[in-house]
Design a protein that fits this description.
407 residues, alpha/beta, Rossmann fold, 7-stranded parallel beta sheet, 20 helices, 12% strand, disordered C terminus
């Protein structure tokens, strides 16, 4: 017997099944996919998958921002041509075969869809939301985990059942370009008019009023400029939001542009940091996913320790220890500069640890896009084209782990 409210829910599900059946009957070989992002960084996590899907003429890709529709054009400014930018209201009237997100955003789609979560980082910040969720994640049809650590944490927190069919161990598609040879250091630098012969240092702090950018960031940048390095500065996207909780109320765009004027450095505002990671000989950060992603390149990492940031961002000790083990930990500006110099002189220091931590946090880098594509085609009940299979390893050689086997 149906319980309270069971009848209406069953009727809605039946109507959605009929909607799919009619759509597939009219055009059995076409599919529509919606990407929903709050920031350009979130879109960057999905961009490799988007680019591959766009090569399939059977698939239409639609872009929206359910939480920040007024910023949608900026969020998707680096999206390839051919995608359709639509408002959340228009998305509500459409039926999509899948909806991808790289954060826990939830577009209102009354006609139903298959919800796919791709995540947007591995640093462990705000663990009660992203790493050990205090709420259930059972409404997602697929969760494309970047590593086994987070998968185990989701299960241990009770957010997922160990035998859930939603579990897929995929990796991070955005990082494929860090290891597949598609990006070259000198080409990235020369493309921006920067001299590849000069040592290049990237400073990429995270956000919040307690980040290293708000404590010693300007002094670090000035010191790097004075030392004669090519200086790249890549703040978190939220640091350009004037709200106090994001930037500390500082107009960082104005402050940093003034500091980097006259060719003394470059302010990077791309959602995808991967080209700039490849361009950098040394990375300076505090506690960010970018810091962990850089380990895939096995180059020196300098970590500015900011205890208040760790505390306020709710970072578990295991993630603090992982980054500390693979980096030179510093506190003051002069220590940053000294560590950069040591890293350039002897880039092989800590190499073994860097490789070990990278292997822990990124599942089989270089093939994540291919694994994500295979899962999406299966989810959409559409034959996978050869071009999708070529994005990474073959399905036979790299099986996607799921359920108890992934835990």
């Amino acid at each position: 017997m149906n319980g309270p409210g069971r009848g209406p829910l069953t009727a809605i599900a039946a109507l959605r099944r009929l909607d799919i059946k009619l759509s597939r009957y009219r055009d059995p070989e076409t599919r529509d996919i919606l990407l929903d992002a709050r920031t350009s960084m979130e879109y960057a996590m999905m961009a490799p998958v988007h680019e591959a899907l766009a090569a399939d003429p059977r698939i239409s890709v639609w872009l929206t921002s359910s939480e920040r529709p007024d910023r949608a054009a900026a969020i998707y400014r680096q999206a390839i041509g051919g995608a359709h930018l639509i408002t959340p209201r228009r998305a509500m009237a459409m039926r999509f075969d899948a909806c991808l997100a790289a954060d826990f955003v939830w577009a209102s789609l009354p006609r139903g869809t298959c919800r796919v979560q791709m995540f947007h980082g591995v640093a462990g910040k705000w663990a009660h939301i992203y790493d050990r969720p205090a709420t259930s994640m059972r409404e997602w049809h697929r969760l494309f985990f970047i590593n086994e650590r987070r998968l185990r944490n989701f299960i241990a927190a009770g957010a997922l059942d160990p035998d859930s069919d939603a579990i897929r161990l995929v990796g991070m598609p955005k990082t494929d370009s860090l290891v597949d040879g598609s990006l070259q250091r000198d080409t990235v630098l020369a493309g921006k008019g920067l001299d590849p012969a000069r040592p290049t240092v990237l400073y990429a702090p995270t956000w919040t009023p307690h980040s290293s950018l708000n404590t010693i960031g300007e002094a670090v940048i000035a010191g790097l400029i004075d030392a004669g390095y090519t200086v790249l500065v890549k703040p978190h996207e939220n640091s350009f939001d004037m709200a106090y909780e994001n930037s500390g109320g500082v107009d960082w765009a104005a402050r940093l542009n003034a500091l980097l004027q006259d060719g003394r450095g470059l302010l990077v505002r791309d959602g995808n940091a991967s080209p700039w990671l490849v361009a950098a000989d040394v990375l300076i950060s505090d506690h960010s996913s970018i810091g962990f992603e850089y380990l895939l390149l096995d180059r020196p990492l300098v970590r500015i320790e900011v205890p208040e940031l760790i505390r306020r961002a709710g970072v578990p000790e295991e993630y603090v220890s992982l980054m500390a083990s693979a980096a030179a930990t510093v506190h003051q500006t002069h220590e940053v500069l000294e560590s950069v110099e040591r890293g350039l002189d002897d880039p092989g220091q800590q190499s073994d640890v860097r490789r070990q931590v990278a292997a822990e946090l990124f599942y089989r880098p270089g093939g994540a896009t291919g694994r994500a594509l295979r899962e999406l085609y299966q989810l959409m009940e559409l034959t996978e084209p050869d071009m999708a299979a070529s994005k990474g390893e073959s399905a036979d050689s790299q099986p996607v782990l799921r359920g108890r086997g992934a835990a």
